[in-house]
């Protein structure tokens, strides 16, 4: 049996996502390297650092700084990561084994489930790999000491905004979420320098979310964009960009895997906020749990016995 040759034009998913996520932080010279790698994803496997620098119109020292910005110690670890990504791409050739980019109408429920698990797991792993933890920690601190937090999300993103609002509110953070643009703009207009505004959009092109975040920024709030697109209008509008990664898309345009990776970011952000004043957070959680405890059905062992009618 003849071994298949990997498709050298396939995108290097992990490295490519890191490059796209870091684009807003890159200098003009580094952007040339980024564009060259996105256009020629396997080039480092064939070129020395000097050759790549020459093709990108920069210097080997700049290439090294570029690698470090992506989270690699240098050029060699970058090459190893690209080779690893290429191996994964080759493995995806047989999608019935390593479930590929799409599912068909005749696939079994087991195959569909495997497809989803594979895609969602890789999306979570990719997002974790590119996550800027020091940045998230700084955002969490700003939220913890803020006087008010606005969260904007329209359509599918509104449920993520609502979930985050409820969780932050329970630990004592004055938080509101807005899915309707008129109400959201009204709230955004009265933000200030002690406030934080968060916009959530998968594509980063939702006009209402962009408008609300822009208004909050004009009012002086720290603005945060959570999106899968680092070069989107929403990301460009924000002071802080938190970029997530979606490995595969199956049913455009509303992939749940996109929401899951954003929920991962929100979950982490919530826990980091709770850590800022852990004692107060746990106290507030206990108080809010006690407040609704009478509305919960008791467990079977704790249920009072029903009165029995005596037989005549």
UniProtKB/TrEMBL annotation:
Claim: Transcription regulation is one of the keywords in the record: yes
PROSITE patterns registered for this protein in UniProt: HTH_RPIR, SIS
Pfam families: HTH_6, SIS
Alphabetized UniProt keyword annotations: DNA-binding, Transcription, Transcription regulation
Presence of the UniProt keyword DNA-binding in the record: yes
MF-aspect GO terms: carbohydrate derivative binding; DNA binding; DNA-binding transcription factor activity
SUPFAM superfamilies: Homeodomain-like, SIS domain
GO biological process: carbohydrate derivative metabolic process
Gene3D superfamilies the UniProt entry points to: Glucose-6-phosphate isomerase like protein, domain 1 (3.40.50.10490), Winged helix-like DNA-binding domain superfamily/Winged helix DNA-binding domain (1.10.10.10)
UniProt xrefs under InterPro entries: Homeodomain-like_sf (IPR009057), HTH_RpiR (IPR000281), RpiR-like (IPR047640), RpiR-like_SIS (IPR035472), SIS_dom (IPR001347), SIS_dom_sf (IPR046348), WH-like_DNA-bd_sf (IPR036388)
Domain SIS stretches: 139-279
Family annotation (CDD domains): SIS_RpiR (cd05013)
Limits of the HTH rpiR-type domain: 13-89
PANTHER family according to UniProt: GLUCOKINASE, HTH-TYPE TRANSCRIPTIONAL REGULATOR HEXR-RELATED
Name of the protein: DNA-binding MurR/RpiR family transcriptional regulator
């Amino acid at each position: 049996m003849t071994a298949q040759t990997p498709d050298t034009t396939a995108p290097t998913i992990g490295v490519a996502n890191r490059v796209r996520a870091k684009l807003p932080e890159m200098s003009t010279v580094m952007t040339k390297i980024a564009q060259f790698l996105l256009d020629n994803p396997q080039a480092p496997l064939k070129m020395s650092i000097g050759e790549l620098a020459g093709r990108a119109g920069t210097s080997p020292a700049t290439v090294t700084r570029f690698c470090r910005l992506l989270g690699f110690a240098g050029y060699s670890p970058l090459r190893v990561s690209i080779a690893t990504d290429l191996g994964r791409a080759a493995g995806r050739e047989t999608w019935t084994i390593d479930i590929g980019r799409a599912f068909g109408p005749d696939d079994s429920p087991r195959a569909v489930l495997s497809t989803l698990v594979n895609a969602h797991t890789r999306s979570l792993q990719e997002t974790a790999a590119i996550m800027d933890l020091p940045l998230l920690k700084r955002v969490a601190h700003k939220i913890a000491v803020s006087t008010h937090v606005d969260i904007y999300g329209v359509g599918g993103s509104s449920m993520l905004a609502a979930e985050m609002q409820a969780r932050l509110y329970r630990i004592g953070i004055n938080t509101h979420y807005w899915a309707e643009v008129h109400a959201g703009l009204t709230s955004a207009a009265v933000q200030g320098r002690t406030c934080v505004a968060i916009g959530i959009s998968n594509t980063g092109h939702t006009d209402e979310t962009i408008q609300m975040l822009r208004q909050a920024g004009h009012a002086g709030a720290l603005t945060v964009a959570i999106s899968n697109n680092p070069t989107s209008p929403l990301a460009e509008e924000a002071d802080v960009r938190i970029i997530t990664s979606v490995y595969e898309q199956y049913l455009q345009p509303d992939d749940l895997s996109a929401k899951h990776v954003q929920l991962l970011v929100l979950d982490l952000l919530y826990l980091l906020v709770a850590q800022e004043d852990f004692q107060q957070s746990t106290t507030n959680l206990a108080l809010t749990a006690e407040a609704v405890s009478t509305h919960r059905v008791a467990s079977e062992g704790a249920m009072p016995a029903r009165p029995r009618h005596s037989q005549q």
